[in-house]
Amino acid sequence: MRFEKAGIPAVLFATTSFVGLARSIALASGLQDLRMVVVDHPLGGIGEQALEDRIEAASEQLVAVLNESPGAASPPTADQPSGSAGAPDTGLSTGVDAALEELRSTLANDGAGLHVGQGADGGVAVELTFTDETCMDCVIPPPILESIIMDTLQREGFEQAVEVVDPRSG
Question: CB under 8 Å to 101, separation ≥6 — which residues?
Fold first, then answer.
């Protein structure tokens, strides 16, 4: 992403499990037209032939992406599970849940979750949650996570006060 910001064309590679995260970070960084190649997840623990097949598919995507006009296509999306957990069924929190579903799916890959609830002054609180098995160092760092949440909600038109609660922040 630093190359793109410096005016050097770049292509981001992401596995299907991290497309949402990559897109969110690109958008939060002002790189809505960042070109992306998506490779099936996972890459580790698969056989040699499966890995070769993924490399071939990625190579074909890369050639296609490089031949496109910049901004001609938006980054591909990964299939994301539907539904959300832990939020009261109010119009506001349901809308916030829907807006954050892609980020929620990405965080779940590292054993983390997002809980949407009532915040101070009638706003919304978005709390990062962990399980005992969560790799806390693997989860998006607090300032970046907060930026992604705020940017996502702003793009979705939410104007209410939003409080991001991250237990890693002191």
Answer: 80, 82, 84
Q: Categorize the per-residue pLDDT at 86 as very low, low, confident or very high, splitting at 50, 70 and 90.
A: very low
Closest CA to 165 of 105, 110, 125: 125
Domains and CATH numbers, the chain: 2-67 (no CATH), 91-165 (3.30.300.130)
Token pair 């056989």 in the structure block, residue? 47
Contact 43, 54 (CB under 8 A): yes
Q: What residue has token string 């490779």?
A: 39
State how far the Cα of 97 lies from the Cα of 117, in Å rounded to an integer.
10
Q: What is the pTM of this model?
A: 0.53
Distances (CA, A) of 142 to 60, 75, 136, 138, 139: 36, 25, 11, 11, 9
pLDDT average, residue stretch 36-59: 90
How far is 160 from 170, CA to CA, in rounded Å? 24
Give CA–CA dist 162/139, Å, rounded.
Answer: 20
